[in-house]
Amino acid sequence: MKQPEEAVIVPTTPIPAIAVPLLSLAAFGSGISLRVTDPLLPQLADEFAVSLGDASNVITTFAVAYGLAQLFFGPLGDRYGKYFIVACGTLACAITATLCGFAPGYAPLLVARLLAGTTAACIIPLSMAWIGDVIPYQDRQPVLARFLIGQILGLSAGVLLGGLAADAHNWRLPFFLIAAVFLIVGIALFSLNRRLPEAARRLHRAEGPAVRRMFTEFGQILLLPWARGVLLTVFLEGAFLYGAFAFIASHEHRTFGLSMTTAGALIMLFGGGGFVFALGSGVLVRRMGETGLSRWGGIFLGGSLFAIGVAPAWWWAIPGCFMAGLGFYMLHNTLQINATQMAPERRGAAVSAFASSFFMGQSVGVGIAGMLVERVGTGRVMMIGALGVLLVALHFSHRLRVKAHPA
After folding, report:
1. How far is CA 327 from CA 101, 274, 302, 343, in A?
2. pTM strictly above 0.90
3. What is the pLDDT of residues 100-157, one digit of tens each?
């Protein structure tokens, strides 16, 4: 398949080796912040006297804010420097995580989670866009996969931390720990940003008001048929996957009586599957290609979610969560690599639109699942998500094949 024209500027001065690992640590904090509330839902429901579905609003609110804020941060990163904006956002996350920990009630917690989602919105998409700016296309997918190790571990640690906090009946402590992580990483990012080559700090100078540029750039991206397809695909992926994933811990707790700590530990295996993909991404990309990764990723992910939903015993979740993680990162990393190249000349805005679609999909999926879970049960929510994500993956794989071999 002929690749799109590149828009990569190689800095004349080498980029410090720690640049990408620091971004990965910021993504680690973002991953914890995103998933820490999943195992806390039963405790939050009891403490605030709301239903499990209403408690899930702490997830939905974060995801909605995260998704919408992408539309602002993309052009902002293109104008002021992606690495610099990530550093600013990381320090802002330390403040909003602290606000979550101090929230005096249900409504203030929702507001704090809204702010937390907004501040975290810049980290992963702008990091991906920055990598896309400095790494050539043919070398980019393994680098992106290694960068995402931070997010993978963060998602896993978030669920485990939330489970431990739930069993200890202290839902506030995790947010203070998250704030400490963001504070340390944010300071390190600012320090490194000053040492980056000029070309790696502000690769695409952009002029004019950010809001006007935001609408202009996203309008131009939406004119591209392939970009529209990628954005719709990742929206549906987020909706079906996380509509099910957000309730896995509650499903294991309610159905099999597992403690939230144990349920959280099981879900850590999702990150384990992603970690295996990250380590072996170079080999998998060469052997399977984008078409094979997206197809088999969807099969692994859909089959695993279905197995968790119908499982007669809790231990089915051990291979289920691991294979779900492997499948998800096979599929999602393929979508990500296409996102970094669907509009190379405005990569910050394009990747931000991609992340926005993904998290808006999550918010819709978790919101719908939250309304269904008390009516149909957590097991059926798993099965609905499994079927949906499988169909989405197979359709995208087909489109990749057609794009690579047009008639």
Report:
1. 33, 8, 8, 26
2. no
3. 999 999 999 999 999 999 999 889 888 988 887 887 777 776 787 788 888 888 878 8
The region of weakest confidence among 162-176, 231-245, 276-290, 337-351 is 337-351
Write the pLDDT tens digit of every residue in 8-22.
554 556 777 788 899
- Is residue 162 within 8 A of residue 38, CB to CB? The reply is yes
Cα torsion 117, 357, 149, 5: sign: negative
| 206 pLDDT higher than 70 | no
**What CATH number does domain 19-404 carry, 1.20.1250.20, 3.40.190.10, 3.40.30.10, 3.30.70.60?**
1.20.1250.20
Alpha carbons 19 and 182: distance in angstroms, whole number:
16
Gap between the Cα atoms of 166 and 172, Å rounded:
10
In Å, how far are 24, 63, 88, 169 from 174, measured between CA atoms? Answer: 20, 18, 22, 11
C-alpha dist (Å) from residue 165 to 59, 108, 170, 187: 17, 20, 5, 27
CA–CA dist 102, 115 (Å, integer): 13
Domain ranges of the chain: 19-404
Q: Which of 230, 264, 199 is nearest to 336 (CA)?
A: 230
CA distances to 95, 257, 387 from 117, in Å: 12, 31, 28
pLDDT band at 5 (very low <50, low <70, confident <90, very high): very low
Assess contact for 71 and 213: CB atoms under 8 A.
no
Task: Answer yes or no: are the C-beta atoms of 394 and 298 closer than 8 Å.
Answer: yes
- For residue 131, the one-letter residue type is I
Query: CB-based burial of residue 11 (10 Å sphere; 0-12 exposed, 13-18 middle, 19+ buried)?
Result: middle
